[in-house]
Amino acid sequence: MYNGIGLATPRGSGTNGYVQRNLALSYKTKEKGNFKAPNEIASPALKKPNTDIIEHDRKRKIEVKCLEFQSMLEDQGCSEEEIDKRVQTYRESLLGERAKEAKDKHGRIM
Asked: Which of 9, 10, 12, 78 lies deepest, with the highest CB count within 10 Å?
């Protein structure tokens, strides 16, 4: 027996009598009452939208409209040069319209 721990004699116990410390036992305690109520938690600050992403999305929508216009012209049987010119003027008109539209304080089109 070691410091009052273990067997008085290992005979008949199936062990050699060696005493080891139990490392799986955890004595850590949590502090209680340290949590905040949901109404006490501050809401996260709103981030400003990324203007580059908004601009990219706007241009992407314009290109989709241009591709739809191009496929419509191809279905009508127009020549390649005429299609290119008409799509380019359509693209410029869409870009001009978007530049004139009013935007709110976050850069979104109203």
From this structure: 78
Among the listed residues 15, 20, 16, the one whose alpha carbon sits nearest the alpha carbon of residue 5: 20
pTM: 0.49
Q: Are the CB atoms for 60 and 91 separated by under 8 Å?
A: no
Q: Is the pLDDT of residue 32 over 60?
A: yes
Residue 94 token pair: 């869409």
Using CA atoms, how far apart are residues 57 and 54, in angstroms rounded to an integer? 5
Question: For residue 41, what are its two tokens?
Answer: 């938690």
CA angle 51, 52, 54 (to 5 degrees): 65
CB 106 within 8 A of CB 55: no
Q: Which of 24, 106, 109 is nearest to 58 (CA)?
A: 109
